[in-house]
Amino acid sequence: MEKRQASSFYQHFDESERPTVDYFVGLFNQFLFKNEPILTDFLNPREQYIFREIVGSYAQLYSFGGFSNAEKKRLLLCDWGQAYEPSMFKVTLLEIDYPQKWSELTHSQILGVLTHLGIELDTFGDIINDENGKWQFFVKTELKDYFIEQVTRVGRTKVKLHDLPLSKVLAQEDDSKELSVITISLRLDAVVSAVTNLSRSQVKKIIADGEVKLNWHLVAQSNIIVSVQDMFSIRHYGRYEIINLATTKKGKKRLEIKAWQAKKR
Q1: Helices (H) and strands (E) in the chain, counts
Q2: Which of 3, 13, 200, 235 has a CA positioned 20 to 30 A from the CA of residue 170?
Q3: CA 101: distance to chain centroid?
Q4: What is the torsion angle, in degrees rounded to the nearest 10, for the CA atoms of residue 237, residue 241, residue 244 and residue 250?
């Protein structure tokens, strides 16, 4: 099999994603050269999609993020037919022990602590809870001791991390809903306007204010064209994935969207 060229994939992705394409093409070529399985860091769904497009049908890609509905996952690139088991993904579950009677933690607080540890975002996976005060998150097994040693506070609350078997993962429900919206075009501002019922001028303002992300990247332009499998998030509203699109008889766009709407507004 010939070495792959990153430039041959550029036309399929946004220009801002070229460094990601370069990296994944490099991983695939490394796999070809060494003929050994390759385990990625935790990838968000967009990164998973890009990697799968690059690998295609030339090799097998397994994914695992600690539980079945995980958003961020580690991917295992290997030969077709190779069996796998969860332990091969080197994912460790950590639970946060803290005085729940006196304190309350939030997702944003925990994420803030993890992002300020001086390590990359791809070293940890999803942060989950059970709606009753228990919080867990997933990390690369090779870095679990670092997380346990470094994370001693979340906000003003003293905490302690415990390493648990994956069988102790808190039960998670998929609380997404499917929406069908009509928009005049596939411009980002038009689509955001359709799902939020905000005017186009209001949408342009929240985009300019950094409240909208497309495929996990902040966007500054309103005229970006979106497509199937794109994911966008709107502060205070939620996350949305475009799962299908069609054109109406009047030339408008009908989008089928999977939405994880914010619980508080």
Answers
A1: 6, 15
A2: 235
A3: 32
A4: 30
Classify 96 in phi/psi space as left (phi over 0), alpha (psi -120 to 50) or beta: beta
pLDDT digits (tens, 9 = 90+) for 122-154: 999 999 998 889 999 999 999 999 999 999 999
Percent of the chain with pLDDT over 90: 74
Residues in the chain: 265
Q: Are 90 and 142 in contact (CB under 8 A)?
A: yes
- pTM, full prediction: 0.82
* Cβ neighbours for 145, distance < 8 A, ≥ 6 positions apart: none
Strands, E assignment, 71-173: 73-78, 91-97, 124-129, 135-140, 153-154, 157-158, 160-164
Contact (CB, 8 A) for 100 and 90: no
Distance of CA 12 to the CA centre of its chain: 20
Coil, strand or helix at 255? strand
Q: Name residue, tokens 């539980």.
A: 67
Are residues 66 and 35 in contact, defined by beta-carbon separation less than 8 angstroms? no
Give CA–CA dist 197/179, Å, rounded.
Answer: 13
Q: If DSSP codes are grouped into helix, strand and coil, which group holds residue 171? A: coil
Q: What is the mean pLDDT of residues 89-110?
A: 94
- Write down the residue that tokens 């600690």 correspond to: 66
